[in-house]
Amino acid sequence: MFSEMRRAAMTPVWIAQVATGTKSFERNAVIGSRRLNEWGLHASRVRLACRLAQARRRKLAGLVSEEDRKAFDRDGFVLRPNFLPDERFAALVAQVRAYRGPLREISEGDTIMRKIALDGRALAALPALAAVLQSREWRGLIRYAGSRDAEPVVWVQSILRHACAGPADPQTFLHADTFHPTVKAWLFLTDVAEDAGPFTYVPGSHRLTVQRLGWERRMSLSARHSPNAEDRQGSFRIDPAELASLGLPQPRVFAVPANTLIVADTFGFHARGPSDRPSLRVEVWAYGRRSPFMPWAALVPWTTSALGRRSIWSWNFGDALERAGLEKNRWRARAGVSAFDPPSG
Question: What pTM, to 2 d.p., does this model score?
Answer without folding.
Answer: 0.93
